[in-house]
Amino acid sequence: MSTAVGSPRLPSGPAAPVPRRWWALTAVATAQLMIGLDLTIMNIALPSVQRSLDLSDPDRQWVITIFALGYGGLLLVGGRLSDLLGRRRSLMIGLIGFALASAIGGAAVGPAMLLTSRALQGVFGALVTPSVLATLAATFPTPAERGKAFGIYGTVMGSSSGVGVVLGGVLTDYLDWRWCMYVNLPIAVAAGAGVLYAVRPAPRAVGVRVDVAGALPATIGLMALVLGFARAEPDGWGGASTLGALTVGVLALAAFVWVQSRVAGPLLPLRVVLDRRRSGSYLAVLSLAVGMFAALFFLTFYLQNVLGYSPVRAGLAFLPLTAGLMLGVRLVSPLLMRAPVRSLLCPGLLTIAAGLALLGLLQVDSGYWPHVLPVFALVGLGTGWVLVAANSTATLGAGADTAVAGAMVMTSQQIGASLGTALLSTIAGTAAAGYLHAHPAAAARAAVHGFNVASLGAAGFLCLAALGVFLITGPRGSER
């Protein structure tokens, strides 16, 4: 899910109110809501998509992964392009491209066509989001109105995950999974009309260049890592394709860091991630995304394939996740300027870990109310807690780097979702295959066993991540 709860801190000062600014807020919030919906709307539809397009178990997770990877991997590039093209133009290009990609996905006749459309959605979504944040910052220059505007924006984004799964269930159950793609067309039209009406054209930034030398190794490295994790299930962890892809990924990301330390206008200035508070925030968000999206992925199939829920019922079953997320936001917000960083981030990560540990104890005959609902509530609570704290911390005192510091939060979230879904799906599939080999007649138990093993592994990873965040951000990193 892409929830940007905390707002960037911007220079304050007297400024004339921007005409039609609340219409502009409505337009860009609608645009970003569309992106947020697409991070979760296909989760509920996945079983129907798999049957319709004859997707294999290893390939099905790419419907989610390839969107999140394209989106998260290109957010920093999208920010540079937004400066280069201008906010209004970038928004319109992104919305039109996203709508066309959605139409292609809805008309997909095979896996390749669907996955291509999802990749294009991620690419154009990465152009929309930085332009949305830049538009909000420019449209609401006064502190009082800016706080209200970002509050409304954060509320919209906080609800997008729940709206996505419920809408996905309704559309899949009563129409067809293809409408989970087609629904973006009217949303994009409404947002585009609002942008044309209310968002003022901004001059292109002078001297802005896209760091191609940095963008290429970053994109190649992230995609290679996810490919390596995905190939581990069919080819094995020692397979040539697995090891080759993982090696390429590590080397490409190392090249990205080397390039960023030497170019004049880097995509990601290293001073941003070398700040201990920010680096701890990025690690926390990446880790929560690994756990949260794994829980979403596993529970989608558990509810529908094991418990026999319809898509609508499964979508409604996800609502405690959204309720927990919004409760987490409400609880942590008053503490942001008073508590040290590590006491904000670590409890949230451990709460998500507790939810995943419960998910690791699920059985074929477990009930929703005593076993599944607590998982949703804990994962949602911890996610909301970490996201608002990370957004606030990452943008606190960032100065000229505020935009890229905020973009890195969302980049970390999407990369964590991509890598987590790929890796944990592979672990679950491997464990399920081993169980099924020993118990040939227990297909449902084998699937649940795979979910258990992967979820407990994710819980352990989040505990280690919480320890890492604690060490990185303290004691000097915890000073406000």
From TrEMBL:
* Record localization: Cell membrane
Q: What organism is this sequence from?
A: Nonomuraea guangzhouensis
- What keywords tag this UniProt record? Cell membrane, Membrane, Transmembrane, Transmembrane helix, Transport
**Membrane-spanning residues:** 21-42, 62-79, 91-113, 119-140, 152-175, 181-199, 211-230, 236-259, 280-302, 314-332, 344-362, 368-388, 417-438, 450-472
Task: Output the lineage of the source organism.
Answer: Bacteria, Bacillati, Actinomycetota, Actinomycetes, Streptosporangiales
Q: Provide an example Pfam family for this protein.
A: MFS_1
For this entry, the protein name equals MFS transporter
Major facilitator superfamily (MFS) profile domain location is 24-477
According to Swiss-Prot or TrEMBL, what is its membrane topology? Answer: Multi-pass membrane protein
